[in-house]
Design goal:
heterodimer, A: 295 residues, Alpha-Beta Plaits, 8% strand, B: 229 residues, alpha/beta, Rossmann fold, six-stranded mixed β-sheet, 8 helices, globular
């Protein structure tokens, strides 16, 4: 193919988009919808990864002592805790001190105004050396006589991990299905364009146009549709994500969830959307062209 | 040059379209190919343009051996053979100029070459004053002239015209045949497939008659007609 034809071929590809304006519009809309959902799943999975990672980095276990034990008995448990291999430090927090913190945390809530120190337990804040062994260490602590309860974040982290696993599986399925849908729509749009121009293609073949020359405008058409869809989906994703994150940040009940700002995801998101747009555009048009090249 | 040697062409259904055809058309010749429907004329055209491959025998067209031509070579073979059809096969939404320029553009010609060559060819076929018309605004004869211009624009060494006068009245048909003769006089090899016996009779050219996939006569028109009868 000669370089002086490239401009002409690109122009022809763009012309094809307008020749079937409605179908092109539909293809872009479906691509936007699909990529938006694909992007949302990816971004959610990414945020969950970060949350799980952060939770895994919390290397503290809260050890609550049986409320029937005296202060001295409770303090004596500290020696046993310090003897456990993976424990770096075990700090005793008497119930009075715990009450102060509780009151400070809930001073605006009238429901907790009558809470007394006797309602709370003495406790230890245990810091671990190896966070990966949190679960095993927690089991050992639970078996110490006088320990009423422990609070280790690994349970939460495991909960998130389960959600993460499910989301990953669902994401893969949803992404696969939506990519196939986008492919089919773009493929059909290009097929329609090719059908409309089948006489032109036959004439091109008759006068000696190479297959590459015939294909390129349709590839350009599919690629352009894919990339327009990707660009619009990217913009929408940004707006929707920022809006949702702002809403979630403003809700106390969802403070546990922290989301990374979209700006920090710009490069991977641009790369993902471009790759998806490129893939559906090129593959979608290529598959339909092959069927028409024997004209 | 076009050369067929013992060419047999069978279709998948088992029909034998050509049953051992041998012929040679030299560069610069003007040849009529005549015969009833189903005699194998269309198969010969398809073999020449690389749409089909022979089942056996050899076909040589302008330096290409069609029995072993590679797919990617076919476009280059077709650039040496211009084809004109009975139904013109023009692109309705393009102007006269664009229809001809399109044929140059798709083989990668430069715009400067297109601007120089297209007016020359349109002048040759007598459409120089209709460059901005669309095919629908032209008469049948003019549409066929446009189809000839398109076949001619890439300067092929051979032009094949498949029933070029089939859709035209006798006066326009004669004009088209005269135009083809004129093109032949400029050095292009012409192979005209036709049913129009009266037109064949008016030109003192070689006539190849086909029947049931075999050449039944090959010579000047009077001899061919006599042999065929």
């Amino acid at each position: 193919m000669k370089l002086n034809n490239i401009g002409y071929l690109i122009k022809e590809g763009i012309r094809g988009i307008f020749l079937h304006g409605f179908m092109s519009f539909a293809a872009v809309c479906v691509t936007v919808a699909c990529l938006l959902i694909v992007g949302s799943f990816s971004i959610l999975a990414y945020n969950l990864d970060i949350m799980v990672e952060e939770l895994n980095q919390t290397n503290e276990i809260m050890v609550y002592i049986d409320e029937t034990l005296t202060v001295d008995e409770a303090k004596s448990i500290g020696t046993q805790l310090s003897g456990i291999e993976n424990i770096l430090q075990a700090t005793f927090v008497p119930r009075e001190e715990a009450l102060k913190k509780f009151v400070a945390d809930h001073q605006d809530d009238p429901a907790f105004s009558g809470v007394q120190a006797s309602d709370l337990r003495h406790r230890y804040v245990v810091t671990l050396m190896d966070n990966a062994q949190m679960k095993q260490t927690d089991e050992i602590i639970k078996n110490i006589p006088g320990v009423a309860k422990t609070n280790a974040e690994y349970e939460l982290a495991e909960g998130f991990s389960t959600i993460q696993d499910i989301l990953q599986m669902v994401s893969v399925a949803v992404i696969a299905v939506l990519l196939v849908v986008s492919l089919l729509i773009i493929s059909n749009t290009v097929k329609l364009a090719m059908y409309d121009r089948k006489d032109e293609i036959a004439i091109m073949k008759m006068v000696g146009a190479t297959n590459g020359f015939i294909r390129l405008p349709f590839i350009v058409e599919g690629f352009t549709l894919g990339m327009i869809g990707a660009a619009l989906a990217f913009g929408l994703e940004w707006v929707v994500y920022d809006g949702l994150v702002a809403k979630i940040a403003a809700m106390d009940s969802l403070k546990l969830f922290s989301f990374v700002p979209f700006q920090s995801l710009l490069i991977p998101m641009i790369a993902t959307f471009c790759a998806a747009g490129f893939f559906v555009g090129i593959v979608g048009s290529w598959t339909s062209i092959r069927k028409f090249m024997d004209v | 040059m076009i050369e067929f040697t013992d060419v047999v062409k069978s279709y998948e259904q088992g029909n034998k379209a050509l049953n051992g055809v041998s012929m040679q058309i030299e560069d610069g010749e003007f040849v009529f190919l005549v015969g009833p429907s189903g005699s194998g004329k269309s198969t010969i055209i398809k073999l020449i343009t690389g749409e089909l491959k022979p089942t056996s025998g050899t076909v040589h067209v302008n330096g290409y051996s069609l029995e072993r031509i590679r797919k990617r070579e076919i476009p280059f073979l077709r650039r040496t053979v211009g084809v004109v059809f009975q139904d013109f096969r023009l692109i309705d939404n393009m102007t006269v100029y664009e229809n001809v320029a399109f044929a140059m553009r798709v083989i990668g010609a430069k715009e400067s070459e297109i601007k120089e060559r297209v007016p020359y060819v349109l002048d040759l076929v007598g459409l120089e004053n209709k460059t901005n018309r669309r095919p629908g605004e032209l008469s049948g004869g003019e549409q066929q002239r446009l189809a000839i211009a398109r076949a001619l624009v890439n300067n092929p060494s051979t032009i094949i015209a498949d029933e070029p006068t089939g859709n035209l009245d006798p006066a326009r048909a004669l004009e088209i045949m005269e135009l083809l003769q004129e093109i032949n006089n400029l050095g292009t090899t012409l192979l005209v497939v036709t049913h129009a016996q009266n037109l064949v009779n008016q030109f003192g050219n070689r006539v190849i008659s086909l029947d049931e996939g075999l050449i039944v006569s090959d010579g000047l028109e009077e001899e061919a007609i006599n042999e065929a009868q």
